[in-house]
Every structure is written in structure tokens, then in C-alpha cells.
Amino acid sequence: MITWRMLVPADFPLLAQWLSHPHVARWWNHETSPDAVERDFGPTARGDEPAEDLLAHLDGVPFGLVQRSRLTDYPEYLGEFAKVVDVPEGAVTIDYLIGPADHVGRGLGTRMIRSILARTWREWPDATVVLVAVVAANPASWRALEKAGLHRIGSGPMTPDNPADDPLHHIYRIDRPTAAPRQPVEPD
């Protein structure tokens, strides 16, 4: 079972280690010095940013990170999405990574995405849709989204996290599930 908790400054050394792994560094392109990790993740850990950085745990051991935010809280990023696809009111976005190299390719990315989606629908009642932008050159990431139930709704240029990447991104979407209407019970 996957459990979650907010990233705190005490987690920064672990996060720096993950960010330095080649399979993460290729797509996240973050500096890993203590000062850089504090600069990039400290404001969210302290509650100074409206986003959330959440550590995913499997059997109590951290293995992944998900960043979750409302697109309206980040107008520049919202604008990048809006150039490629329609962005409904209440749109949320996520970004994610699997830290330990020996956890990659085991289906944990898909499980983690499904888990954060379920958590988003429960915890953020105003969330109407989750939109995710993925560099087109990262098929492992967009396949995990597809296996988790998201659908590609468009492709277009966006600023990549790694300047070495082509700007082409695929945009994936999943709408808030609707409860099945309750069927009336026929009297005997």
C-alpha cells in the first residue's frame, strides 16, 4: 500500500540523492547541492508556496515524490498549458519521480499516480481535472500516465525542465470521476 506525507527539510538529503540518480536527473535537471535543494523545495516544505511536495512510501519506505498544485496558483505554467489545450476551471497538475533506481520499471509509477489521483479527488473537492505535461521524448512517463487512466489530449511546445530536451510535450488528462447514479429500488 502506498502512503503519503509532506516533504520536510529533513528529507532534503534523500531528495538530493534521488535527484542525482541518472534516471531522475535526465528529466528533472535539478542542482543537488544542499543550498539548491533548499532553494527549490524549501518554500513548499515551509508552506510558503501553494503547491505540495509529497513523499510516496511503500511499506513505510520512501520511494517517490509527487508535486501537486492547482494551475491557477501558477499563472505562467497555466499559460503554457493553455497554449496547447483547453484548461478547465479547477485544473490540477502533478509531476512525479521514482527515486531509487531499483524501483524503476516495476509498475510503481503507475501505482503512485493512481494513488495520488484518488487522494486528489478526496482532498481537493474543487479539483475538476488533472492535467499533466510530459516531454514527448519520455515514453516511460507518459506510458505510466496512460496505464493510470489518463488520456493524451494534445501535444505542443512547452518549456522543458531539461534545456537539452525538445520543447514538444504531450498533455494528459483525467476528469474527476462521477459517482454512478443510484438506481431506485423497485418495491416488491
Automatic annotation (TrEMBL):
Organism superkingdom: Bacteria
Per UniProt, which keywords does this protein have?
Transferase
One Pfam family name is: Acetyltransf_8
Claim: Transferase is one of the keywords in the record: yes
What the entry lists under InterPro entries is as follows:
Acyl_CoA_acyltransferase
- Span-the-membrane segments of this chain are none
Could you give a GO molecular-function term held by this entry? N-acyltransferase activity
Name used for this protein in its record: Aminoglycoside 6'-N-acetyltransferase
Origin organism lineage = Bacteria, Bacillati, Actinomycetota, Actinomycetes, Streptosporangiales
